[in-house]
Design brief:
single chain; seven-stranded mixed β-sheet; 7 helices; binds zinc ion
């Protein structure tokens, strides 16, 4: 399929919350983007997998992604097991993404930090010729870590000021998670819609401010950035 950019995360809505603005911005630039949810989010206390699948489809449309799929790993059991890694490697061979966005490797939820390791190792294995799976060996060129919710310093921030409103709509498409029916309101497991909105806004503003724009999404790459022209570097120092 030759995607330009693929975001991989544990649960439907993780990608929207962490790097939805960047995905939309890249789609607007003409890149072919995609989202791979490792699980269907079936352990969530709200909504059914069917409802979440519909919500995920609406969100994907809002973010203009060309492809969205679920790997079929059981929710709450994301881990870099051989079986999951092979399945992911086969998917990487099909989608052939140039760049992959993964969650940061430090997180509260085990599915989130395991998604990071599983994602990296699946991408690596996909490039091994003799791996016992179908498809032509392939390895993505670049791996980026989305760190919106991690306690880590980003190596760069993407300006999503123009995409912020649409990203907000994509996140709110997951109604069952954020807009519970009155009968379900008593549960404290999930963020209330007001708190979620305030938190989203605060985070995006915080990272935006770091690069002198209104809204931003933070990323980390393990490699150093190569710079060709130090005179044209962006973001003011003083
Ligand atoms: Zn999640």
């Amino acid at each position: 399929m030759n995607l330009d950019l693929l975001a991989i995360a544990a649960h439907p809505d993780d990608v929207e919350l962490s790097c939805g603005g960047t995905l939309l911005k890249m789609a607007q630039r003409g890149y072919k983007t995609g989202i791979l949810d490792l699980t269907a989010g079936e352990m969530g206390t709200r909504g059914t997998p069917e409802i979440r699948a519909k919500e995920a489809e609406s969100a994907a449309k809002l973010l203009a992604v060309k492809w969205r799929g679920t790997l079929g790993v059981p929710d709450s059991d994301v881990q870099p097991s051989r079986q999951h890694k092979l399945r992911l490697a086969a998917m990487i061979r099909q989608l052939r993404p140039k760049t992959v966005i993964l969650p940061h490797w430090e997180a509260r939820h085990p599915d989130h930090y395991h998604a990071s390791t599983l994602g990296y190792e699946g991408c690596f294995l996909a490039g091994l010729q003799r791996l016992p799976i179908e498809g032509e060996a392939y390895r993505p060129f670049k791996i980026l870590y989305s760190i919106s919710y991690a306690d880590a310093r980003p190596t760069f921030v993407v300006d999503i000021t123009a995409q912020y409103e649409q990203r907000r709509r994509a996140i709110l498409a997951f109604r069952s998670q954020f807009r519970p029916k009155n009968s379900e309101k008593k549960s404290k497991v999930h963020l209330s819609i007001d708190r979620l909105e305030a938190e989203m806004n605060h985070l995006a503003r915080h990272y935006g401010q770091m690069i002198g724009v209104v809204y931003g999404e933070p990323f980390l790459q393990k490699e150093l950035m190569k710079v060709a022209d130090v005179v044209k570097m962006e973001v003011r120092s003083i």
